[in-house]
Amino acid sequence: MDDLPPGAILPAPGPVEINAGLPVTRVRVTNDGDVPVHLTAHFHVFEANPRLRFDRRKAFGMRPDVPSGGAIRIEPGQTVEVPLVPIGGRRVVRGFHGLVDGPLDQVDLEALLEHMVAKGFLHEPEEPAE
Fold first, then answer.
1. Beta strands in the chain (DSSP E)
2. How many Cβ atoms sit within 10 Å of the Cβ of residue 56?
3. Which GO terms describe its molecular function (predicted)?
4. Which of 1, 46, 79, 97 is surrounded by the fewest CB atoms within 10 Å?
């Protein structure tokens, strides 16, 4: 190890599992818009493009289960099952569509969903699995 240059990277053997141990929630997302949409690795999916039709309640506080820098692309008219994991850290969301803009645990989710639907966001609750 003494002969390695400064900043050398020593990868561990075997594959790296991203988001290990995090619970995964899957939602069906349909792009009802006319352009492709990308859901990037750290995006609060709940606030995604208004023309995406999915159960936003299930996606609250969640981000795509993809590697950092990755994304899930959804073409117009396409339906994709998207794996989601909880947003970590302090669970504070800023930006996006400005709908949450603060701690996730201080949101009145039902009032926020009503507000989003009134503003034209598509929301389609999924039936519970049996």
1. 25-31, 37-40, 52-53, 62-64, 71-74, 79-86, 92-93, 102-103
2. 24
3. urease activity
4. 1
Tell me the pTM.
0.86
Q: Is residue 124 part of a domain?
A: no
Is 80 inside a domain boundary? yes
Number of domains, the chain: 1
**Angle made by CA atoms 17, 62, 83, in degrees to the nearest 5:** 50
End-to-end CA distance of the chain: 55
Structural domain including 53 reads: 25-118
Q: Is residue 19 part of a domain?
A: no
Q: Which pair of tokens denotes residue 50?
A: 């208004």
